[in-house]
Write a structure and sequence with these properties.
The protein is built from four helices and 24 strands. The chain folds into three domains: about 100 residues, conserved putative lor/sdh protein from methanococcus maripaludis s2 fold (Beta Barrel); about 90 residues, Elongation Factor Tu (Ef-tu), domain 3 (Beta Barrel); about 70 residues, Helix Hairpins, CATH 1.10.287.
């Protein structure tokens, strides 16, 4: 009887333990850098993986600034010293080629005008004298040496007159009137974007600012100057298009084209200057504005993975790769730039691998617990 009771008790205890055994979760094991889950483990349902994609193009980013297009810009200096009598234009005003910017009372111009007037009179007198001596020579009254002297004087006077007229033309003033008023004119059409002179100011040709008295430019076209690191300069070529962004543009960008890559490295910043141009018809951006530039480079190496798939432990970045059959392998990787929510991996992955982007921290805890 007692034996029967014992058997019944054992059977009841076995029945009570059966649900506990059914609810037990199979535990994964760690082998080296791999976490292995038993077949049918429900824990794998939280591990989501995605196939990596080859990197078909890279986006390089640079910092820089906008400057005036020097092909459409002129810095106007005065070739003469003197006092500024008046300013004829305002900042931001559109001007035509040849238009007067300022009027300067220039004593040197007065001297040049006086020399031109004297040379003109001397030339007229020399020509009259030559004509008279020639008539006398033909009449047999004047000797040959007088004719030769008159011819020499006429030639000298004509040369002096030509010199003084050419000098006045250099100043843009061909008037014979001696007024000492020098009209400082602009050689190109554009907009007055800088003014560094005031009425009454005394000017000297050798002491003017490097910026000039006026800066006239066409602001509808600007240059950009970028600082490119030594490691990236091999991928930057003249003729390539870049996207130029600025704070005032918000999410918008302007397309620019690279025109020149410098042949030397700045010894201070260890960067290479890259210059290009943009069209700015609405004048949305301004010279001396800081900008960023994006350049797409084709055929770049590496793979693209979700940003969440990469995590940092210590000083090393890692990802977990789904190797199939419940096996997940941790791999160290070297990263490239981040773009559009995805991370570029330059080294550490092979083609067609699948990286875990959900649950990778769970796998890391299992590996760390083993360590």
């Amino acid at each position: 009887m007692n034996r029967i009771l014992i058997l019944i008790s054992v059977a009841l205890l076995a029945g009570c333990n059966e649900p506990v055994q059914k609810n037990a979760v199979p535990q994964p094991r760690v082998e080296g850098q791999a976490v292995i889950f038993p077949a049918g483990s429900p824990q794998t349902s939280v591990l989501l993986a995605e196939k990596i994609e080859p990197r078909r193009e890279a986006v390089l980013r640079f910092n820089g600034r906008l400057v005036w297009d020097e092909d459409r810009t002129v810095r106007v200096f005065s070739p003469l010293g003197g006092r500024v009598q008046s300013i004829a234009v305002k900042l931001g005003q559109e001007v035509r080629a040849g238009q007067t910017l300022a009027v300067i009372a220039a004593p040197d111009l007065g001297m040049a005008q006086s020399e031109a007037r004297k040379a003109e009179q001397d030339d007229a007198l020399a020509r009259k004298s030559l004509a008279r001596v020639t008539e006398l020579m033909e009449a047999g009254v004047a000797p040959l040496k007088d004719l030769q002297a008159a011819q020499a004087e006429a030639g000298r006077a004509a040369g002096e007159r030509a010199r003084t007229v050419a000098r006045l033309k250099l100043y843009g003033n061909v008037s014979g009137a001696v007024d000492q008023r020098f009209a400082l004119a602009v050689p190109i059409s554009g907009v007055v974007v800088e003014r560094n002179v005031n009425p009454g100011q005394e000017l000297r040709p050798d002491s003017q600012s490097d910026k000039g008295l006026f800066v006239v430019s066409d602001p509808t076209r600007l240059w950009f100057v970028l600082d490119v690191a030594e490691g990236d300069i091999g991928m930057v070529k003249a003729g390539a298009d870049v996207r130029i962004g600025a704070t005032m543009l918000g999410e918008d960008t302007i397309t620019g084209r690279i025109a020149n890559v410098a042949d030397f490295v700045d010894p201070q910043s260890r960067t290479v200057k890259v210059r290009g141009s943009i069209e700015n018809p609405g004048r949305r951006v301004k010279a001396e504005m800081f900008v960023t530039a994006e350049l797409k480079v084709p055929s770049a190496r590496g793979f693209i993975v979700p940003t969440k798939a990469v995590y940092l432990r210590g000083e090393q970045n890692y990802v977990f790769v789904d190797a199939g059959d419940g096996r997940y392998v941790r791999k160290p990787v070297r990263l490239g730039p981040t773009a559009n929510g995805h991370q570029v991996v330059l080294e550490g992955l092979a083609a067609d691998e699948r990286v875990v982007y959900e649950g990778n921290l769970l796998l890391e805890r299992l590996v760390a617990a083993r360590d």
